[in-house]
Design brief:
The chain has helices at residues 12-20, 30-49. It is an all-alpha fold. The chain contains 2 helices and no strands. It is elongated, with a radius of gyration of 19 Å. It starts with 11 loop residues before the first helix and ends with a helix.
Length: 51
Amino acid sequence: MEPQTRIQRLTDLEETVQHLLPFSENSSGFPYALLLTATLVLSLLSVIFFL
């Protein structure tokens, strides 16, 4: 007996997210957290230094 595989159609949003996000769903969220933190820190520093 062959195992059943579920085929699920992706919505347009899910397809767009897959193209925009280079990491797979199995990878950890650490790279995203690091990028988000770095962006936030740079934004705050730019606001502080240019006021």
